[in-house]
Amino acid sequence: ERFPRLAGSLPDTVYTLNLEERRVTYFNRDSFLGYDRGELSRPNSIQDQIHTEDAAAVTKYSSDFFLGKANGGLEYRVKNKNGQWEWVDSRKIVLSSNPDGTPKEIMVVLRVITDRKQVVEQLEYHSQVLANLNDIVIGTDENFRIKYWNIAAEKVFGWKHGEVIGKSVTE
What's the distance, CA 58 to chain centroid? Predict the structure, then answer.
């Protein structure tokens, strides 16, 4: 009774899976990526929607997990019910084991991270644009301490990035 209340309050999608029966034993949401519980309860419902470029990594992560070698999670793309690709962070935890030590029941925590991935991609792009501009770009904080110094500034002033970051523009 405590676990469903706790899991139900999370923003993540959480489900438990009985591996012997290959059956979902708990699901904290009515849907995930637009798929309802009935669709998600079918064997391989999510696995069949994994991006082909990510399928091998997902298979390896699962294999490593069952061998006790996988730590942390895995980020991969899954097609939502509308046909769009969503990035998902997936983490697995063993809840109970068989006498031989193999997992009997696991918990899977899924977090949709598409927005975060897009923001990171944009930041990386803008970082590359700033770094490679032919114009001098020097960024400071409110106290005029240098926080950013691009390649053009290095070429014109002769100081490397590491030599000026954190220094005042008056130094």
Answer: 13
